[in-house]
Specification:
Layout: E1 9-13, H1 17-26, E2 31-33, H2 36-42, H3 47-57, E3 63-66, H4 72-83, E4 89-94, H5 104-112, E5 117-122, H6 125-134, E6 141-145, H7 147-152, H8 158-171, E7 174-178, H9 185-192, E8 197-200, H10 202-206, H11 215-233
Parallel strand pairs: 1-2, 1-8, 2-3, 3-4, 4-5, 5-6, 6-7, 7-8
Helix pairs in contact: 5-6, 6-8
Length: 238
């Protein structure tokens, strides 16, 4: 399989504004997501300035920005500010706050007010069903299933994605996103399980060209890499 033949939409997951602009200009990436952890890693110091710059530079594909608050009234205020940065902005609302209180009513209110919502940190079909019942079918939305973390718990994420994909299609205006990717094979898993979108970090995006590579050729390339690295280091056994 050639990566250019993929039907699933590829979103870049990161917070480096210059990389985001470059990836957008290249045209392969169909959207962007970020979160507070990625922003911390990228050294983002002013969240509003970062979001405004990104929304000003990238206007024709989805951009997902996450709220920071833990109480729902403040989350709502933050969501409305973020949504104001552009028509292509999706506001990421966590499925619960840190106390385990469900965000359903806030999601319902914002979605029915026309805000595009990306419900994040979703792990189960039960959570997904509750979220989809709250989302306005007339408003575009995304349900982000953290498949990588699900598999970290020793659970097969594909059946979860498959079931939620069916629910999203019935909902009519929601897409399911395979989030927290761990390896390139997740792209294959996400596509065959019916996900609309998968998020990839810069490292995984850079590896996309290996999809469909002949395994014998890949084996030879690997042997050459080991040999050349050992030679460059001057290692000797005899």
């Amino acid at each position: 399989m050639d990566y250019r033949d993929l039907k699933i939409e590829i979103y870049a997951d990161g917070a480096d504004i210059e990389k985001m602009k470059k990836q957008h200009d290249e045209g392969f990436v169909k959207g962007f997501t970020t979160n507070p952890t990625l922003m911390k890693k990228a050294g983002v110091e002013d969240y509003k300035s970062f979001a405004k710059e990104a929304a000003g530079a990238i206007k024709d594909v989805p951009l997902s920005f996450e709220v920071f608050a833990d109480d729902f009234p403040t989350m709502e205020k933050e969501a409305r500010v973020l949504a104001g940065f552009g028509d292509n902005v999706y506001v990421k609302i966590p499925v619960t706050n840190t106390k385990g209180e469900h965000s359903t009513e806030l999601i319902r209110k914002l979605s029915h007010d026309g805000l595009k919502i990306n419900v994040t940190a979703v792990f189960t079909t039960e959570q997904s069903k509750e979220v989809l019942e709250a989302l306005d079918p007339m408003t575009q939305s995304i349900v982000s299933i953290f498949a990588g973390r699900i598999t970290n718990a020793g659970v097969d994420a594909e059946p979860v994605i498959s079931e939620v994909s069916k629910m999203c299609r019935e909902h009519g205006n929601s897409k399911v996103l395979w989030a927290s990717s761990r390896e390139l094979f997740n792209v294959i898993q996400a596509e065959r399980s019916g996900a609309d979108i998968i998020t990839l970090t810069d490292d995984l995006l850079g590896s996309l060209k290996t999809l469909g590579k002949d395994l014998y050729e890949y084996s030879l390339d690997t042997v050459k890499m080991f040999y050349n690295d050992g030679k460059a280091l001057g290692y000797k056994i005899l």
